[in-house]
Fold each of these.
Amino acid sequence: MIPLSTASLKTESWQQQLADGYCSIRELLSDLELSAHFSPAMEKAAGAFPFRLPRYFAALMKKGDPHDPLLLQVLPVAAELQHTPGFTTDPLQDEAAYEGHGILHKYQGRVLLIATGTCAVNCRYCFRRHFPYAGHQALKNEWRPTLARLRKDTSIREVILSGGDPLVLSNDRLKKLIDALADIPHIRRLRIHTRLPVVLPVRLDSGLIEILGNTSLASSLVIHANHPRELTAVLAQALTPLRHAGVTLLNQSVLLRHINDDLRTQVTLSEALYELGVLPYYLHQLDPVQGAAHFAVDDHSALMLHRNMERQLPGYLLPRLVREIPGAPSKQTLPGSQNRKNFIAG
Ligand code: SF4
């Protein structure tokens, strides 16, 4: 039995729910009636990248199913301890793109701001699972050096708040930061990359909606849903006021072996996103981060899947199949995903 009742999930603040999340693998497996599946290697894997999970998201998992696609995304497993050639601790060379004061500058006209190193959930496939957040984020109560740097570079049109998950910050802190960004004349757009709406929809509270609805920056929220079962009525309800406030809603997902690498799941995901007012934006090939090789889908299978999605979905519901390549000027569309001649459909 999941200890938090649906009623308490409705009444507790998002901060309380964040603090009350699972950090014990044994407890989660016991609540999911999967205690027999526990192994000490799971705790070893969590030693390298901690286990953390909101109870709301755990409540969406099927009890007694060790292959539940939501569980597989968050449960530490022995496979994470294996070293796979080509899988590294800094697969996107974030270190090289780090400019200081929380700023990662990879692409022309936009910068990524590491607003915090904390997430509500630790996704086991995360490309930043080894990122040295200490010393690589904007200082906790001091945005000034970060803002000074952004003010100086007039080529920057868009700031992307990332992390960690920027929505773990309080509304007060977010408002101060967003207001300060809006005061910089050349910055016109704000984008927030966050998994919190999916794993804890209550985070989309009225204060946040007011902040994003009132800023002069054109704002988009990029949520991160990988599976249609993550798209609940609770999430739909939480997203509606954001849409009404004029915030553009997009989704990016990661293609994950045995989780969402089949046609039915991907088509259902895109269609269900649209019903929530969210456009599928990117479908990422996994970044080769150490500890996540067991999630990888080979390029041929990814292309085949994407081609078959293209047959079943209107163009506006087909996410771009992309890979990030360190040093490239933008995300790279997988060769062949837009060129049918190069592709042999299966
Ligand atoms: S929420 Fe995003 S940044 Fe945090 S662990 Fe998951 S994928 Fe990584």
Amino acid sequence: MEKTGCNKLHPQSMCPAFGGLRVLMRIDGAQVCMAADQGCLYGLTFVSHFYAARRSIVSPELMNVQISGGSMIDDVRRTIESIASDPSVRFIPVISTCVAETAGIAEELLPKRIGNAEVLLVRLPAFQIRTHPEAKDVAVSSLIRRFGAFNEPRREKSLVVLGEIFPVDAMMIGGILQKIGVESVITLPGADLDDYVQAGRASACAVLHPFYERTASLFESAGRRIIKGNPIGANATGQWIERIGEALGLDPVRVKEVADEERQKAKEVLAGFSSRLHGSVIVAGYEGNELPLVRLLLEAGLDVPYASTSIAPTSLGEEDHRLLTMLGTEVRYRKFLEEDQEAVLKHRPDLVIGTTSLDSFAKELGIPAIYYTNNISARPIFFASGAASVLGMIAGLIEKREIYSRMKEYFVPAD
Ligand code: SF4
């Protein structure tokens, strides 16, 4: 099968509301109340059990009769009351989705607090929020806007690190920030509602992923410094540490020492792979954090002719965009599967790091392919150790390229 379709009509990623659910359901003491129709509820319950917090969603029964009959808001209120009757529930996020009536639910008709629980309406309609990464931003910014203690005294040398990351990366970040004199770090999205409160008192916010635009602008408008970028690859690692030191007014000598040390360690990892990393890779995920991986691959000496992501271009991702396009990568935002497929046919890369549908397409052509989400988002990528983990896996796959061609020959005998 070498033809690409051109209708671009089938779903290109999972339901965006899932991203918001992932953030909200993981908060301790939270019980989501969803205002959605049965179809949304079925699908979102399924993905939430598998990929969010293995918890159930509670929802009023919203069939056509309730939605069009005018009883919907009373049904939602009754459901909130019933959830709040459990004293262990401290937070009730009310999520509204695509159905026009639930998307337009009136916030002033919902309680702000009931029993032991805070109630917060988060609107996640797919026609407005196109992807699940962007829905994470909507959820985090709604939490910060409501709970962030921006009016309390600011904590000097304290930092919010914003972006869902692998646990080992969070530990590495904490260790390195401590070395340069950062006194407290809050990692968001987090499991403790109090972290969202305390985030308002931090002095600066390091935004690791480019789609957190709404959240970044909340911090910025409260006078907090925004630090762009992430410690991926040698150059960016040193620069990221220096930017944090500068934003928090830390000891510049100590900051430079640590930045140089970490840059050097990452350089040594990259040099260690130089004999093994040759060839071209296509990166095409839908997580919104693909471009920093491309930067790492380019720095390691690989060719990346094409990269795509589901999110729109953002000002937080501008630096990566400029660098990648300067180095010859064609970058596609709000991509369609068909565009990714065309890129695979055009470039015939040695490896595809893509979505499941693109990976099947590549494998049918005898090209090694792995799923971005399971293989990149689920392993460390920051600093020298993260680079070693990612590049080790990629080198192994490129070296085994031959096996994929043989597999193809086995399953598809020559005519
Ligand atoms: S209708 Fe909207 S909210 Fe419901 S499952 Fe589809 S994309 Fe998600």
Amino acid sequence: MKFKTHKKKIGVLGLREAGKTVFITSLISQIENSIEAEGRVFKDITAYVPWDNNTFEYKQYRDAFSHQEWPEKTKEKTSFKCSFEYKKWKYKDVNLELIDLPGERISDYLMLANTNFDDWSDAILSDLSIPRKVREHYSKYINYCSNGKVNESTIIMNYKELLYHFADNYITSSISPSTFNLDQEGKPIKRCKDINSLLNRRYVGIDAENQFAPIPKSVITKINEKHKKKSRKEKKTCADYQLLKLFRKRYELYRDKIVIPTFKDIAHCDTIVVLVDIPDILSSGYHKYNDIQRYVQHLVKCLNPQSPMYRALRIFSSKISSRISTIAFIAVKADLVRIGDIGNLKELLKKCIKNKMSVIQNVKQHYFVVSSATATMPVENNPNILVGNPTKAMKDGEPITRDKNDKNIGFEVPQIDNQWPEDNWAVENYVYPELFPFISRREDAPLNHINIDKVFELFLEK
Ligand SMILES: Nc1nc2c(ncn2[C@@H]2O[C@H](COP(=O)(O)OP(=O)(O)OP(=O)(O)O)[C@@H](O)[C@H]2O)c(=O)[nH]1
Ligand SMILES: [Mg+2]
């Protein structure tokens, strides 16, 4: 026990499958096995102790790698706390907390400052960050709400249809209530042929009984006007008034149960890490690129002192006098690109994000390129080829499914530039294989990584 403690609370954000769980698992494996870990800073770690009440299943996730499997998809927020000593600090030890957050919940950011349903409805239906192509569906929805024949099930179904168009057009960062995109069991929305059955399985609210959908301001004003002079008893028989009342109640429930806890967790962090999967953006195209930019824009709203979202966030954090002081954007899965292109990954990351973040003056910004669990090896004298164990491959011109016990093979990887593709974004030129991770049977072996130590150095900064 030392005189002082360096406390760090780090929230790890990113869209689905960005690599949050693997990132945290790798970082803990380096700290836990500091003697063997690569990177100067890990060598100075001693007296590591994980806390008893961790909900992040580190052992289970690390064990997956011993069986050449990736960790399971995360279903809910989890956290991992540990203490250790850093040889260079004589009088201080370190308490580190890492929080694995479902990044999709950021889409509910408009609910942060809009404490009531009426204001949120207006804010979401006039959100100009939605691309024009999908705004047409907004207009359809608003027209439907304005036709006077609205009832609970049809308005909810119409709103879900609208959100499905968002998902279908990669506008996932604007899907709110975010439970439609990522339900409370952590199941993400998937494209399917039978849209109606999909819409029935997804909820816009905390559960099937508590769903709600925004109502345009003009319609709310009309309802209020119509029922202004009616008694409470009379209002009870008016379907439109009752529906509005119901949605207001369900909105508050959703805000209390999902939005406030998520953003409270974020507000209590001093450092936010945002993982960005650039190979995935390159292989998906400009829809995904635009979606990441919108995602960052929502984050910017929460971090900009001029915004109402920031003020709402500060209310949660003021009690424990903490503040988000640092944000690190990390381009992950660097092992999927040619070694010579790793610098370009960083350039692409900065070019996608830095502009959006330029209005933020009160938070230190950092950019990294990382591979949390390297699953490839370079080949000497041939920079175009990497060696690894892809889950699928081509054999005699036919696609085949491979087994984790199959031998490693070499595969060609695309070259990436330091500029994002412009009009000629040919996604077929950016094919990255899904790989089995490298097997590491010894449980005390830290995962192979690139630059995890550089990020860790940031966590040790005051
Ligand atoms: N090649 C490579 N693949 C990675 C790496 N990190 C993650 N992956 C791949 O990305 C997938 C998702 O990683 P997770 O860490 O589970 O992603 P997540 O952000 O926690 O995902 P959710 O829990 O669904 O939100 C893994 O199953 C791997 O296929 C990496 O460092 N290198
Ligand atoms: Mg996860």
